[in-house]
Write a structure and sequence with these properties.
The structure holds two protein chains of two kinds. Chain A is an alpha+beta fold. Chain A has one domain: Alpha-Beta Plaits (2-Layer Sandwich), CATH 3.30.70.20. The longest helix of chain A has 9 residues. Chain A starts with a strand and ends with a strand. Chain B is of the alpha/beta class. Chain B has one domain: Rossmann fold (3-Layer(aba) Sandwich). Chain B has a seven-stranded mixed β-sheet with strand order 2-1-3-4-6-5-7, with helices on both faces. The longest helix of chain B is centred in the C-terminal third of the chain and has 17 residues. Chain B is globular. The interface between A and B is medium-sized, with 24 and 29 residues. The structure holds thiamine diphosphate, iron/sulfur cluster (3 copies) and magnesium ion. One iron/sulfur cluster binds next to loops of chain B. The site of thiamine diphosphate has 18 residues of chain B, from helix 6.
């Protein structure tokens, strides 16, 4: 089991935003979908730091990312 | 390298690793990428073992996305945390012995200009506060005295992070670290002023709170080094492990330090200023 970020897609889609993507320390991990205009997480690369949650919830007050536990293979 | 080395020979696409094919098809090579496009292209840097939430790793990520010409860039690093990510990118990486980075870069840059007289090859050193301002101090300063044409970037986490928490010349006065239990007795070294006095033509200091600004600074430092002389960036890149910063507060800490003592600072010679005024003038103006 490990800890990763998960974007609530329908909430994020309201904003056309992308700010969290620009602050993730990991490359090719927190991505942005061109046509759906939502952020999404490549779980196997996420290290669970929650900097993206700070950006979305604390700075922007949008609350569209949560940290979740996943099991290998999820 | 150069673009011809990056391209996959026809018919070989299906034998190449997917990450490499993605890099050629959706990556930065041969394109002008805007750092705001992060998350929408395949980045040069790959998975690496730096700690979760490390802002030095974040700086390295933005650094690679900012390169004006990745296919003609060589990165030099050394012992210390940054090389753990620097070496995991599709850009040639040389490991200089600890303290030697700026001597290695001097020789390399000179050799490249002899071997490729009509090509622009960018050389960038990225190393820690310990590597550049303590143990590599002499090499760093002398590369600046000699006006060697490459960029030096100090990723300053104010500690020897990779070896478990010794104080460096860049640790702030009074700070207590695992292997500095009495608290540091001396002031933080003013690296930016040293760089100016020693002959750098472009000098900047920043905290990584704004990717667009990091990109512009990195680009300017590389272009100024290409044409004029040594350039230096002093970047605050916290060590959340040695400074016990909870990972979700790492950006908050960078914003706090930016207000305190890492406000954006940029200085350049008049010659370099004129160069950028010309280069960065809006395309319409240039046409008119
Ligand atoms: C010649 C030599 N001396 C000492 C070391 C041990 N060493 C490895 S990393 C390091 C300190 C790293 O501190 P810094 O340069 O600030 O980089 P950081 O890990 O903090 O990013 C030291 C002393 C070494 N590898 N080589
Ligand atoms: S910061 Fe929040 S709203 Fe903005 S892109 Fe990220 S998840 Fe979506
Ligand atoms: S938790 Fe950290 S590593 Fe994972 S997506 Fe968010 S910022 Fe990136
Ligand atoms: S020890 Fe500190 S500087 Fe090194 S990777 Fe970990 S958080 Fe980053
Ligand atoms: Mg250090």
């Amino acid at each position: 089991m490990y800890y990763v970020a998960d974007v609530k897609e329908s909430d994020c889609a309201k904003y056309n935003c992308k700010q969290c993507v620009l602050f993730c320390p990991e490359p090719n991990t927190l991505m942005y979908h061109d046509s759906k205009h939502v952020a999404w997480v490549n779980y196997s690369r996420c290290k669970g730091c929650a900097i993206c949650v700070y950006v979305c919830s604390d700075l922007l007050k949008r609350n569209c990312i949560e940290m979740v536990m996943v099991t290998t293979g999820d | 390298m150069g673009l011809e080395y990056v391209r996959i020979s026809p018919g070989f696409e299906k034998y190449m690793p997917k990450d490499y094919v993605d890099l050629v098809q959706y990556g930065q090579f041969g394109k002008e990428i805007d750092v705001q496009q992060l998350g929408q292209f395949k980045e040069l840097v790959e998975e690496h073992p730096m700690c979760a939430g490390c802002f030095m790793a974040y700086f390295v990520r933005v650094f690679y996305a900012s390169l004006p010409k990745p296919e003609d860039t060589i990165v030099i690093g050394t012992a210390g945390c940054a090389r753990l990510a620097l070496s995991q990118a599709a850009v040639p990486f040389i490991y200089g012995n600890y303290g030697d980075t700026n001597a290695v870069a001097s020789g390399l840059k000179r050799a490249l200009s002899i071997r490729f007289p009509d090509k622009e090859k960018d050389v960038v050193v990225i190393a820690g506060d310990g590597g550049l301002i303590d143990i590599g101090f002499g090499m760093t300063m002398h590369s600046w005295f000699r006006r060697e044409k490459f960029t030096t970037i100090m990723v300053d986490n104010e500690v020897y992070g990779n070896t478990g928490g010794q104080e460096s010349g860049m640790s702030p006065r009074g700070v207590q670290l695992k292997m500095a239990p009495k608290g540091k007795q001396f002031d933080k070294i003013n690296a930016v002023e040293l760089a100016k006095v020693a002959g750098c033509v472009y000098v900047a200091k920043l905290a990584p709170t704004n990717p667009k600004r990091i990109a512009k600074t990195v680009r300017r430092a590389i272009l100024a080094a290409r044409h004029f002389g040594p350039t230096f960036i002093h970047a605050y890149t916290s060590c959340n492990i040695e400074y016990s910063i909870p990972t979700e507060k790492v950006l908050e800490d960078a914003r706090k330090r930016e207000k305190q003592d890492f406000g954006f600072y940029e200085w350049m010679t008049d010659e370099v200023k004129e160069f950028f005024e010309e280069l960065e003038r809006k395309p319409e103006e240039v046409k008119a």
